[in-house]
Design brief:
Keywords: Flavoprotein, Oxidoreductase. It holds the Pfam family Pyr_redox_3. It comes from Pseudozobellia thermophila. It is a single chain. The protein has 327 residues and is of the alpha/beta class. It folds into two domains: 206 residues, FAD/NAD(P)-binding domain; 114 residues, FAD/NAD(P)-binding domain (3-Layer(bba) Sandwich). Strands 1, 2, 3, 4, 5, 6 and 17 form a seven-stranded mixed beta sheet that branches. A five-stranded parallel beta sheet has the order 8-15-9-10-11, covered by helices on one side. A three-stranded antiparallel beta sheet has the order 12-13-14, with no helix packed on it. The two termini are 28 Å apart. The structure holds flavin-adenine dinucleotide.
Length: 327
């Protein structure tokens, strides 16, 4: 069984930041990533533009140069890929971690390909794998998706977009501009306040001029082959419908965290338990890094404020090693 001082689960921006830090501080490490490099970003909409400016997405002070102040998905893929390849980081792709178990003074990490032993484990698995579902009849129809990729697909189609935050609003605008007939179904009373400040006026104007039909304070009751039924303040409304984009956010894989023994808060936030000064969880030797830390509060952590986790974690590992060798 291969042994590493640190096994990093997840090759997103923050997993990569942890690997760079481990490498610089002389710790043997491997990143195990279940998809391609920065899998979450790879799965973002093809035209997606970050709300962060490029310097806020930088890791390890490596300059991120983008055409506009806020980079596009492709530029971010290029940036993180180049960091991995130019630094020759030890990353194993398309290798999913299935189980982490305590063994001796460390851990056994079982992936879809092999087993590893590790002194420490960093969990940097993000929150983009599991969508928040609507839990309504018809959600499993093939015309319903929780991920949006390319507006071309929806041209000349009747599209219902569910949600009021950045993903939903970007999708609604892009698809309308490519010729889809868009209905926007919003649970609250308005378009989300966190929608990018340069996009919000655009969607509000499109709604006001009637180009995009918005249903506020509305929820989906049922999805059928060629219809969607929604509950609105005026009563039930049935819309003709070809496709549904249910962009109602994502959540971390809590089961995976709990399977390692990481405790979650009892409330709806489901915050994992960790020491905010070291990022070590209630399971000694297992650390959390990146947006996974926020539980259901997926708007709390970004690349900008979580990239520091890498240094905090590696410093703590080295501190504990120094203390252990004194005894
Ligand atoms: C549409 C959208 C736009 C966003 N825009 C911004 C922005 O402008 N600025 C910003 O800072 N943040 C933005 N975010 C949030 C952003 O996704 C995160 O800040 C960033 O991806 C977090 O990096 P991470 O490394 O913590 O997690 P992720 O990038 O999600 O990386 C986690 C990785 O872990 C892998 N993984 C998961 N489970 C396993 C397993 N069991 N075994 C192996 N690998 C596993 C995943 O495949 C993934 O590659 C956006 C998010 C979305 C959805």
């Amino acid at each position: 069984m291969e042994h590493f001082r640190v096994v990093i689960i997840g090759g997103g921006p923050i997993g990569i930041a942890c690997a760079l830090e481990a490498k610089q501080k002389g710790l043997s490490y491997v990143i195990l990533e279940k998809g391609p490099i920065v899998n979450s970003l790879f799965n973002y909409p093809i035209n997606m533009q970050f709300f962060s400016s490029s310097e806020k997405l930088e890791i390890d002070g490596i300059p991120f140069i983008s055409k506009e102040a806020k980079p596009k998905r492709n530029e971010a893929l290029e940036y993180y890929r180049r960091i991995v390849t130019s630094n020759n980081l030890n990353i194993r792709l398309f290798e999913k971690v299935e189980k982490v178990e305590a063994s001796g003074s460390g851990f056994t990490v079982r992936s879809s390909k092999q087993e590893y032993s590790a002194d420490k484990v960093i969990v940097a698995t993000g929150f983009y794998d599991l969508p928040n579902t609507l839990d309504v009849p018809g959600e499993d129809l093939p015309k319903v998706s929780h991920y949006y990729k390319d507006p071309h697909f929806y041209a000349s189609q009747k599209l219902a977009v569910i949600g009021a935050s950045n993903s939903a609003i970007d999708a609604a605008l892009e698809c309308w501009r490519k010729g889809a007939e868009v209905s926007l179904i919003i649970r609250g009373a308005e378009v989300g306040q966190r929608v990018k400040y340069w996009v919000r006026p655009d969607i509000i104007n499109r709604i006001e001029e009637g180009s995009i039909k918005a249903y506020y304070r509305s929820t989906v009751k049922e999805i059928k082959e060629s219809e969607i039924i929604i509950n609105t303040p005026e009563g039930e409304v049935t819309l003709e419908n070809d496709f549904v984009l249910a962009l109602t956010g994502y959540k971390p894989n809590f089961e995976f965290l709990e399977s390692m023994g990481i405790e979650l808060s009892d409330d709806e936030k489901r915050l994992p338990r960790y020491n905010p000064e070291t990022m070590e969880t209630n399971v000694p030797g297992i650390y959390l890094a990146g947006v996974i830390c926020g539980g259901m509060e997926t708007h709390k952590w970004f690349i900008e404020n979580s990239r520091v986790h890498a240094q905090m974690i590696v410093d703590d590992i080295l501190r504990k090693k120094a203390v252990a060798s004194e005894h």
